Amino acid sequence: MSEPQDGELNVTDHSRDSAGLTYVYPVVSRRAGGVSVGINLNVNNACNWRCIYCQVPQLIRGAPPPVDLLLLERELSGFLRAVLHGDFLATRVPAEARRLNDIALSGNGEPTSAREFGEVVDLIGRIRRDLAVSDAVKTVLITNGSLMHRGAVQSAVRAMAALSGEVWFKIDRATDSGMRRINSTRSSMARVRTNLEIAARACPTWIQTCVFAIDGEAPDRAEREAYLDLLRESLKSGLPLKGVLLYGLARPSLQPEAGRLRALPSDWLESFANEIRTLGLPVRVSP
Ligand code: SF4
């Protein structure tokens, strides 16, 4: 990676206000070698979960305020125009990342908790068509999956499939107690199984998993076995999973537990990735 020039975004600039917009922000991804155009619907930093490794500042429980769809449409189409037809890539992005990778529904909370989530997906589809965005550019939903059972969310996720859609479905632990500990949610593994099935049958779906040590302890054998069992069962039932995105603790948590969390050595991640690969699933590791 070359040194950032004046005004360039670098791979560590993940702040949501780097473009000075309300909903839309660019992220330069080292792993993907390109630019992701992020959409943050949770402008109030509210999520229905509270993961102890979450990097959202001043995270609160809840849902986003009503989305200003006109403003979002203006920001997204204006920003994509600048990326595709303007000088944004040439003037703001290091040479090795000058391509558009994806449009990502991500941000500072759970995107599917926005009441307007379906309209947002429709809006992305309209803009993609107007600007003739290539099918190679994915529309990615980064989600904790907890609301996938809602009819409106399912319809929107099905609509995403026609927009080169991908769902990145968060499963950090595969036991009820592990989820309570890591994600501070009372959601159950039964719900996770149901919602994962809904997502994977509606749109190509990757599982995204973050692993780290708490108080010096990596996820124990029982947790890892529960996770592998979940994958095994899903594959056995014919669920068309794309694979697993396995993350380490790349950036510090902004939650009160931050001081208790440590990144695991990359060989730990690789060894866990290899266990997953033996089930026949592709794994992408980001230490
Ligand atoms: S689901 Fe995502 S945004 Fe919500 S608390 Fe967890 S890491 Fe943070």
Compact description:
With 287 residues, the chain is an alpha/beta fold. Helix content is 33%, strand content 20%.
Question: Could you explain the architecture of this structure?
Answer:
The chain is an alpha/beta fold. Helix content is 33%, strand content 20%. It has 8 helices and 12 strands. The protein is globular. It binds iron/sulfur cluster. Iron/sulfur cluster binds next to loops. The site of iron/sulfur cluster has 10 residues, from loops.
Strand numbers in spatial order across the main sheet? 1-2-5-6-7-8-10-12
Distinct small molecules bound, one entry per kind: iron/sulfur cluster
**DSSP helix fraction:** 25-40%
Structural class, by secondary structure, is: alpha/beta
Low-confidence parts lasting 5 or more residues at pLDDT below 50? 1-7
| Distance between the ends | 17 Å
Main beta sheet: strand number and arrangement? Answer: 8 strands, mixed
How many distinct beta strands?
12
The total count of helices amounts to 8
Give the rounded overall mean pLDDT: 93
What fraction of residues sit in β-strands?
Answer: 15-25%
Taking all Cα atoms into account, the compactness measure Rg is: 18 Å
